[in-house]
Amino acid sequence: MKILVVDDEAWMRRTLSVMLQKWGHEVLEAADGEEAWTRLQHEPIGMAICDWVMPRLSGLELCHRLRAAGFSHYVYLILLTGKDQTEDIYTAFDAGADDFINKPVNAKELQVRIKAGERVLQLEQALKTKNAELSRVNEALQASQAHVQRDLDAAAAVQRSLLPASSETGLPLRLAWAMAPAEQLAGDIFNFFRLDEHHLALYLIDVSGHGVPAAMFSVHLTQLLSPHPGTSGKAQLQPPTDSHPAMTVSSGFATAKAIAPQETLTDPVAVVTRLNQGFQVHDRNMIYCTMVYAVIDTHTGKGSLCQAGHPYPLLYRREGRVETLGGGGLPVGLIPDADYEAVDFQLQPGDRLLLYSDGVTECFAPDRSPFGLERLAETLRLARGASLDEAIDQIQEALERWRRPANGESPTLADDISMLAAELDAPQSSR
Amino acid sequence: MRYWLEQEDDRGDLLQLQVKQLTAASAPQAFEEVRQRMHAARPLVMDMRQLDFIDSSAIGELVLLGRQFRTRAAAFVISGLSPPLMGLVEMMRLNQVMDFSPDVDGAFAKMATDTSGADSHHGR
């Protein structure tokens, strides 16, 4: 180790130097504090043995200056003191000295004190190496985190692009919706599309769990439930083909091969049954979904829906009543041979059908009480004078008020909130 | 057992859930503990009167557990679910694929009847 010996008496410096060299250290000398300070600034010295009383700059002043300088490496400082200088020793430790040794110097004592100092310096060096390693790891983690975040942003953008862009269907009915994901990626997904000159299909799906797996599954379902581009408005569940690899590649989820190529999207029970046959949970894949799929004949107002483990759809009647539709049903993907039921309904102009995820009814107030079905129905009823868009806004506002503590900001959502509503227009001839 | 308290009962195994919530984070471990008690010759009651919230992932785990019990021809009944949770069970028609009872006595009685009579699930 490189040790600096600082003493204004040359014979003392020589004596110490000889001892230290004998123990294998490289020794540098300085005749006072100022000279020592210059050497410490310019050479990588690990330890200094320093006299107390010296001209120009004392050992104590050197201590102060050294600790104030904050070198990148640690300098272990041993002060040489006279006997019975207890008060001075306190002062020296306070100034930043690491150890002291009484004059006249006992060789054995000096040797063990230097060894103790070496142990401290080795620990300091090991800590520095670890810190540097941690900094490198931290930088790598930050870079990786930024990468994941960019991917999540991109995935969220893909998901948003799958939500309806316009309520324009060319059919005599209005549509409105709202979506608030609990995390950046949602497990809820909904859509609607025109099946032919009269019929509209609409659905709302809630995939179990959250995050990336739920979001990927929801995107996959959206693809399966999109009208086929090449069939002139005649929609069908897309068959697995080479041009749609997402349909044929088993990506941890069950494949969609069980869905028959010619299956149309016009029969809610058939759609739900086919999806259930195509996706089944197993030990390594616990993803399933709940959904409502509905088809409405916009000219007659006749509708049919299938409820699969999903909250009961609400039907607001123009005269002010709210009815629940359906009697329950098994979720999609849990029971291989589940039977599903069709629920028929009749819409009159001005009636409103509301599909929603359980994030709405299970939206919790600060005291953990849920928003609930009755409160949702009442909010829908109270929005009777409002447009469909306004009615959805009013439900969203009611949920926000429900969640918010008396004084403070709303906590993050525990579950995705999504709603999709349809209202039949009055027939043109009757206007 | 971490999630369940095992109660002595000469009619079968009685497990009492010790937590109020079952979620994606806790359900796999909670149901794994039940799985270890799965035994074809001995009826099992899962007393869930403590439960006040179950998330969708935990429901999936519960149904999978039910499927595994059926595969092994082992019987279990869930007892004591609160009315809101029974509402959820009915909405999801889980009562078509699993047995529920308001209380522990009813649960054991149900299994005594089932083993002496026909299977109530007809192959689901």
UniProtKB/TrEMBL annotation, chain A:
SUPFAM superfamilies: CheY-like, PP2C-like. Pfam families: Response_reg, SpoIIE. Keywords: Hydrolase, Phosphoprotein. PROSITE patterns: RESPONSE_REGULATORY. The keyword Chloroplast does not apply. InterPro entries: Bact_Sigma-Reg, CheY-like_superfamily, PPM-type-like_dom_sf, PPM-type_phosphatase-like_dom, Sig_transdc_resp-reg_receiver. The modification 4-aspartylphosphate is found at residue 51. Residues 2-118 form the Response regulatory domain. This is SpoIIE family protein phosphatase. It comes from Marichromatium bheemlicum.
UniProtKB/TrEMBL annotation, chain B:
CDD domains: STAS_anti-anti-sigma_factors (cd07043). Residues 21-111 form the STAS domain. InterPro entries: STAS_dom, STAS_dom_sf. It comes from Marichromatium bheemlicum. This is STAS domain-containing protein. Gene3D superfamilies: STAS domain (3.30.750.24).
